[in-house]
Amino acid sequence: MMDTTEEALDHYGLDEWTLTSSSEGAMVAALDSAYQDEEPIIITAWQPHWKFNAYDLKFLEDPEEVVTVENDVHTLVRNGLEEDLPDVHQFLDQFQFELDEQQEVMEMMDVDEMAAEDAARTWLEDHPERVEEWTDGVGEGDGEEVRFVLEAWSDAQAATNMAAVMLEDLGYTPHLNEVAVNMMYGGLATDSADALLAAWYPNQTPLFEEFDGDFEDLGPNSVGAVTGVAVPTYMDIDSFEELQDE
């Protein structure tokens, strides 16, 4: 994102603007400080992220799509899972949520400092109607293992722990293994993992193509994920092109 944001500054002729590198925590702290006083600030941003629940933000329009990419986040499972664990396969196929739901879990994790499993369980206990919808018609397990792979991203942690908690309550034994993004796909290809819920498409197109045929794509579990550059809605600016006049 830093590289593509630099490209956007160059592409839109914003040579006098500078991009400051920092940790995610420092970026959010700068956003919070500016937001409280309604001061101008521009940040690199991605959604889902809890800051979109905590602050009123908008992505800057990027007509040439230099930095802004819209994604759907897919659920992928290993080939043969439907035959081996048909009820788990059905559950994963039914598990589709809204970004703001996931962001609520992420906010519990990142702001309230709850463990991912505790945050997921708390949210699910508060939304029994969603649990009923996602588990409708899914048979109970008898301790069968369900092996998830995930990156250490907050959205992946939130989604995977939500799925794991519900499967555990249904009598299955979920295991969560954090690996690098390419190894998520490698795990499915070698049958050492059963599922992943953090396949961003088109961002991960090279991995989709590299492991084509080695997994089953159940489609999006969430839609409308975005990476780009954002500002608070109180700022009277909507696009990169408008920055040229600022």
Describe the overall structure:
The longest helix is centred in the middle third of the chain and has 16 residues, at 154-169. β4 (145-150), α9 (154-169) and β5 (173-178) form a beta-alpha-beta unit. The model has no long low-confidence stretch (mean pLDDT 94). This protein has helices spanning 2-11, 24-36, 51-54, 81-84, 86-94, 99-110, 116-126, 128-134, 154-169, 181-189, 205-210, 240-243, and strands at residues 43-47, 57-59, 69-78, 145-150, 173-178, 195-201, 215-232. α6 (99-110) crosses α7 (116-126) and α6 packs across α9 (154-169). It has twelve helices and seven strands. It starts with a helix and ends with a helix.
Task: Sum this structure up briefly.
The protein is α+β, with helices and mostly antiparallel strands and 246 residues long. The chain is built from 12 helices and 7 strands.
Order of helices and strands: HHEHEEHHHHHEHEHEHEH
Number of helices: 12
Report the span from N to C terminus: 23 Å
Number of separate strands: 7
Q: Mind telling me the C-alpha Rg? A: 20 Å
The helical percent reads 40-55%
Overall pLDDT confidence = 94
The helix/strand class is alpha+beta
Contiguous low-pLDDT stretches (5 residues minimum) are: none
Tell the overall outline. Answer: globular
Beta-strand fraction estimate: 15-25%
**What's the multimeric state?**
single chain
Main sheet characteristics: 5 strands, antiparallel
